[in-house]
Write a structure and sequence with these properties.
Rossmann fold, DNA polymerase, domain 1, 10 helices, 39% helix, 12% strand
Length: 227
């Protein structure tokens, strides 16, 4: 059996769960905010408070730094510096993340990462968190995410789910034609994810395996968010 077909008859179709990294599989709001403060400080720009920072959170990161006052000529450098600052800080696995991965694997599914963050940063985090060999794939520098999400779909009907904690994640999953699941334990509240059009919203990652079992069609219908 290949990476997309390990079900042993437990589920109707093979399926893939792709997850955002920062704010979803890792609980790292503090390090992300601190990294941004460090970058803005070097540029002699004011740094927003933590709550204001996440209210203004945008992806791709260039849009966020532009909104925070970084000149267009310095945006690429600010994003690189932010990735370096994030990488220098420890990541903490989100509550329920490992149980979710184990649960999806036990059902025959694949679990991996699709993130706009630097692939080098993600791989360092993966190694620190002892997830090497646990995740089935890691795609970093994904901008736009919809292109990466389309590329991981196997060549036959499959349930493909993307789990993310921002409106951008929901928009990109829907644009890719796959199931969008909002994670309300990350950077943005559940209400914002539902308003962005998430097919489902969860507040704990370990609820995902039970949700996946209920997705009995290969492509999502045009429905509103449910919990």
């Amino acid at each position: 059996m290949d990476a997309f077909d390990r079900s042993g008859g437990d589920v109707r179709w093979p399926f893939v769960v792709a997850c955002d990294w920062n704010g979803t599989l890792v609980d790292d709001a503090d390090r992300v905010w601190e990294a941004a403060r460090a970058v803005l400080g070097r540029l002699r720009l004011p740094s927003p408070g933590r709550a204001d920072f996440f209210d203004r959170w945008r992806l791709p990161l260039g849009r966020l730094f532009e909104e925070l006052g970084v000149p267009s000529s310095q945006l690429d450098g600010a994003v690189r510096d932010w990735n370096d600052e994030v990488s220098a800080r420890e990541a903490v696995l989100a509550d329920g993340a490992l149980r979710m991965i184990e649960g999806i694997h036990s059902m025959g599914g694949s679990v991996g990462v699709v993130s706009a963050a630097s692939v080098a940063v993600i791989e360092r985090d993966v190694a620190r968190l002892s997830l090497t060999g646990v995740l089935d794939f890691v795609v970093g520098d994904a901008d736009p995410k919809r292109a990466a999400l389309r590329s991981i779909r196997p060549g036959r009907p499959a349930r493909v789910v993307y789990v993310g904690d921002t409106e951008y994640d929901i928009i990109e999953a829907r644009a890719a034609g796959i199931w969008s699941v909002g994670y309300g334990g990350g950077y943005r509240p559940s209400t914002a994810l539902a308003a962005a059009g998430a097919h489902h919203v969860i507040d704990r990652l370990d609820l995902l395996p039970a949700l996946v079992r209920r997705l009995d069609v290969s492509a999502p219908s045009r429905i509103g968010a449910s919990r």
